[in-house]
Amino acid sequence: MSYLVLDLGTTDPIQLRFAIRTTPIAAAWVERMSIRDAWPLDDPERFYNFDSVEQQIIRAETYIRTCIDTINSYQYIIDRPFTSIRDQDCLNYLHHMFETYHGLLDQQTHDFWIRAPKSVQTALAELNIAVHRCESVGYANPRLVCTWFGMPKIHKLDPNIAKQYGSMTVPFGTVYLNYVEIGKTLEDLAYDQDQYIGDDAFQPWQHYSADFVIPFFDIDNSKKLPVMEKYLQQHQDFFLARGIENVYNIHAMPLRYPVADLQDTRSKENLIKLIAQRQHVTRVSIE
Fold first, then answer.
1. Coil vs helix vs strand at 271
2. CA 116, CA 119: separation in Å to the nearest integer?
3. Residue with more model confidence, 80 or 109
4. Residue range(s) defining the domain that contains residue 55
5. Shortest CA distance to 259 belongs to which of 187, 165, 191, 192?
6. Start-to-end CA span in the chain (Å)
7. Overall number of domains in the chain
8. Where are the beta strands (DSSP E) in the chain?
């Protein structure tokens, strides 16, 4: 049995162990994990919803304003002022700007990206993370995300394997693949009520990398299907042109792809409290 092992906290650290599943998707993820050290961990503090709402708001607003200021100090491309984390249309606009100037997955060909200094490229890449942090504020769904900056996303999930091993339900503490496309799934578009819909905006979940998410809550995405179906019908022509008739198409379903399961005897409540006090990833390993 192989394990994903995480050390959390810079002082009085704790260790979490996750038993890696024996599935084709888990094996593909382990292969990506085996070479991840060639790239830096994006942000060792990508913990969501472990703090009070007030702390989350301050952190999210500071982060997104810093990204915008860094980008605009080089070239004033974001001409719509940031309003608040509750303004979803503003967040959709900022995500659209990220998609436009960053470029599609591993296709950073926009003149702005090519000319921009490294600090601005980083701020533009982090604008995506900042938007998602804003969108997460206030939800009672704590989770941890680990991504590796610059790691190529060149491998695709086989659609048949994705449908066989993907799940709309994920239990507390289960590690699953992180969405790595530049864009949004139908699930994201529907819940954001995003009107910046287009070929760049809609990107079904196809690629994977070493990047992963750990929800410290139970997921049941079947409850999202009615909202997604309504959005799909509102934009029926767009999705039909891409071969998607309903939410049960593999490119539309809100699937998650589990790769490992938490091995811990502590209560969920106690574990969340312990993690909340140690919101820093100090080590990631496969053993």
1. helix
2. 8
3. 80
4. 51-139
5. 165
6. 9
7. 1
8. 3-8, 14-20, 47-48, 143-146, 155-156, 169-170, 174-177, 207-208, 212-215, 219-220, 258-262, 281-286
